[in-house]
Amino acid sequence: MNTQRLPLKGIRVIDYSHFLAGPFMGRCLAALGAEVIKVERPKEGDAGRAHPYFKDGQSGYFLQQNMGKQGLCIDLRDKRGLELMLKLVETADVFIENYRPGALERLGLGYKALSERNPRLVYCSVSAYGHTGPYADRPGFGLIAEAMSGAMAQLGNPGEAPPLLRMPLADMYTGIHGVAAINAALVGRTSSGHGQHIDLALYDCMVSMHDFAVQRYFLSGGTDVPKQTGSGQPDSTVYGVFPARDGNLVIAAQVDDAWKRLATLIGGNALASDERFAKPASRNAHYADAMEIVRNWTLSQPSRDACLAALEDAGVPSAPVQTIAEVVKDPQIHARGMLVEQEHPVLGKVTLPNLPFHFSDCDTTVRTPAPLLGQDNRRIAASLGFSTEQVDEMVRDGVLYNEAAV
């Protein structure tokens, strides 16, 4: 692969965010070539540092979402710390924050104040509900947005409490929307000369993800609300999870051609020509029968792998329901470079998920680990014009803080 200039080389990002949506956004921008400075508070730093899984006092959660960044830990309540931050802002192209609306205005770090210092600044805010509307002041996490959005209400078995998604869908989806919006604002800046404020809400992003439920509700005049359907999809027969003797698999045979191939495999010409299942509408009308026929077949096979081999030979889209232990050994994941190894100053070699960016002329794999708390304090302060004596004084007074391993 060629090692040409990364797309965001020369862009400086201040990542003053915590936990997930904002840090993930910053991680993506770092992978694309931006210089990302992670700003944290003494002495705890980003709350993500206290999130498991831990090894030797280091959080894997933090390592994953903050790789490729520089680390600055300052006390913004001290005027010297605030002065350092404001000088840093004057050199930046992007500022990311995910505090409750209004919190940074009180510190003098809101969009209005910072854009007056740096009119070209692209300022991206992430919050639970956004900076406008009746819920703007409410706190929230991804779980809140997932519950509010209607997504959670469709999960699980009828009559049971919906399960947690177990992957941070709201945060990650909002984070990647932030990456897209920031890049769009940077492109727009080339002609306007000005940055702008991007206001992203976890709730908005989750509602925007509905590919079917909202349109269904309005097109039905408000009478049709998607409900829990367990491991199947009654509006797309056959499309769901099926048990095998030693695991589970998914089958996606909801379109006519795939259904006919599946029906011929498991029931011969008799099933393939059965009028009950001839078209999508009739298959949906006989959903329970179709699912039972397929389920009986998967359970009759010697193993999950035997099911999958037969389905693949028949040209029916299918896949195993893999555990994480299976995913990290999957040759496709390795072929696509979706695991990255890094050398961490405390942990030694660590392996983490890569980002799914594949460019023809550059490699966006981040090889540098997440910073230790305050790792780059002295270098960043010196680059902004602070003398060695001033930096020493701020370190002595706790305005600049770093963990012992630094």
Describe this structure in words.
The chain is of the alpha/beta class and 406 residues long. 38% of the residues lie in helices and 15% in strands. It contains 16 helices and 13 strands. A six-stranded parallel β-sheet has the order 5-2-1-6-7-8. Strands 9-10-11 form a three-stranded antiparallel β-sheet.
Number of helices: 16
What gross morphology would you assign?
elongated
Order of strands in the sheet with most strands? 5-2-1-6-7-8
Radius of gyration: 26 Å
Largest sheet: 6 strands, parallel
Number of strands: 13
**How do the SSEs run, as a string of H and E?**
EHEEEHEHEHEHHEHHEEHHHHEHHEEHH
Mean pLDDT metric: 97
Instruction: Give helix % range.
Output: 25-40%
Distance N to C terminus: 34 Å
What structural class is derived from the secondary structure elements?
alpha/beta
Runs in which pLDDT lies below 50 for 5 or more consecutive residues are none
Query: Strand portion, in percent?
Result: 15-25%
Strand and helix map with partners:
Blueprint lengths: L11 E5 L4 H11 L3 E6 L13 E2 L2 E2 H6 L4 E4 L5 H12 L3 E4 L13 H7 L4 E6 L14 H7 L20 H24 L4 E5 H7 L4 H7 L19 E6 L2 E6 L3 H17 L7 H6 L1 H14 L3 H11 L3 E3 L3 H4 L3 H5 L3 E6 L3 E6 L23 H7 L4 H10 L9
Parallel strand pairs: 1-2, 1-6, 2-5, 6-7, 7-8
Antiparallel strand pairs: 3-4, 9-10, 10-11, 12-13
